[in-house]
Amino acid sequence: MSIKWSEHACKYNLQNEWNDTLKEAYLYDRLSTEHKVRCRLCPRNCVIQQGEVGFCKVRKNINGTLYAQTYEKAAHVAIEKIETEAIFHYEPGADILSLGTIGCNLNCSYCQNWSLSQAEYANPNIISQRTSEQIVNMALKNNIKILSWTYSEPAVWFEFVIDTARLARKHGLVSLFKSAYFLSEEATDMIIDAADLFAVSLKAMDNKYYQTHTQGWIAPVLNCTKKIHRSGKPLEIENLIVTGLTDKDSEYIKIIDFVKKELDESVPLHFSSFHPDYKYVHLPQADSSHLERARAMALERGLQYVYVGNVFENVGLHSYCSQCGTMLVERFGLNSRVLETLDRSGRCVKCGKNNNIKLKP
Ligand code: SF4
Fold first, then answer.
1. Residue with CA closest to ligand 1 atom 6
2. Boundary of a domain, candidates 16, 36, 68
3. What are the tens digits of pLDDT across the range 257-275?
4. What's the rounded Cα separation, in Å, for the pair 121 and 223?
5. Across 193-351, where does the E strand assignment appear?
6. Where would I find the beta strands (DSSP E) of 216-305?
7. What is the DSSP string of 334-346?
8. Staple 321 to which of 96, 207, 226, 348, CB 3.0 to 4.6 Å?
9. Same structural domain, 166 and 246
10. Domain limits at 37?
């Protein structure tokens, strides 16, 4: 039997089991009428009545105060490779501690993590309480230097991400924030400050597509992405190629041109393969020929680092020097091997070009 997250949380509140983990939201306004609040975390700016939750299903108005019910509530914790997050230019092969909760401020019809992102379908039994200290200690104990906020949309446990990332930094750890970046400007500023590297899941370059298939809209996503790029912190972009929807040359070109003109031709771009899921189980998996075509077009148009994703063996998985074409990092699936052609500072040994690949210490 599925239990709605809001009901689930209420149940625990009544039983007083997790009361102390409710956290007052960082970004919201109290409205003057009937204990209503307005959330400022994402562009929806949900106005939430007493006892109700916002679109994301996990931020709740209790007596005129907005709470993050997800605080310290982890739905998935795992040790993975950094390549899982479509990050290829930061410490290839590094272990990451991946962390996710439930809920999402979008509702993508093809969501690959829908059993977490769509909170009403989440199994409450998978949720465990983890404090910031426990997470940092888990990373340190396993000699992991990177926390990855991922799976469903990490913005929905924003307060916990911010608090844990700040603590983690004091212990020499870094935070990777993998998000659709459908965030408010002030939330973006806070996450840029707290996190250290950024993976943007850019669905398409078309507002109608966002409205139809994600229930969001595109302008905030592009603004956030440009803002992160201006911050100078490491950023990589991933586009999921969805069969029959975004597997078109015209769509590839729009994304390529955005990266080239609004960001920089050196920002890594990943084209990844969709697999049938959630409401779009009728669509076949995106064929690797589409990924390869998109990659070839991006390279032709001047992007320097273009990859394919969700495939095991492909020339588009490897990193090459953007100047002389020498292979620098070899990959098979999510495994990577840094070659002797790449020096410790990220330069190609053959031609000296700096390819902006940060290696593990
Ligand atoms: S984070 Fe959730 S509650 Fe807040 S505005 Fe977005 S969807 Fe609404």
1. 42
2. 68
3. 999 999 999 999 999 998 8
4. 31
5. 197-201, 235-241, 269-273, 306-309, 319-320, 327-332, 335-338
6. 235-241, 269-273
7. TEEEE-TTB-TTS
8. 348
9. yes
10. 5-68
**243: CA distance to ligand 1 center in Å?**
29
Closest CA to 95 of 85, 106, 82: 82
Backbone angles phi, psi at 356, to 5 degrees: 50, 45
Mean pLDDT across the chain, nearest whole number?
92
Q: Is 42 touching ligand 1 by the criterion CB < 6 Å?
A: yes
Number of helices (H), then strands (E), in the chain: 9, 19
**pLDDT grade, residue 15 (50/70/90)?**
very low
Residue that is written with structure tokens 């999510």 in the block? 334
DSSP state of 113: T
CA distance 1 to 300: 52
Kind plus residue range of the DSSP H or E element containing 28: strand 28-30
User: What are the tens digits of pLDDT across the range 303-340?
Assistant: 999 999 999 999 999 999 999 999 999 999 999 999 99
Q: How far apart are CA 97 and CA 221, in angstroms?
A: 25
- Exposed, middle or buried by CB within 10 Å (0-12, 13-18, 19+), for 346? middle
CA 254 from chain centre, in angstroms, equals 21
Check pocket membership of 2 for ligand 1, CB cut-off 6 A. Answer: no
- Asked if the model's pLDDT at residue 16 lies above 60, the reply is no
Q: Is the confidence at residue 232, as pLDDT, over 60?
A: yes
Atom of ligand 1 nearest to the CA of 42: 6
For 83-95, the pLDDT digits (tens) are: 999 999 999 999 9
Which is it for the CA torsion 230, 231, 233, 237, positive or negative? negative
Name the pLDDT band for 118 (thresholds 50, 70, 90): confident
Secondary structure of residue 329 in the 3-state scheme = strand
Alpha carbon of 2 to ligand 1 centroid (Å):
22
Ligand 1 touching residue 44 (CB < 6 A): yes
Q: Residue 245 is part of a domain; what is its CATH number?
A: 3.20.20.70
How far is Cα 135 from Cα 200, in angstroms, rounded to an integer?
23
Has residue 271 been placed in a domain? yes
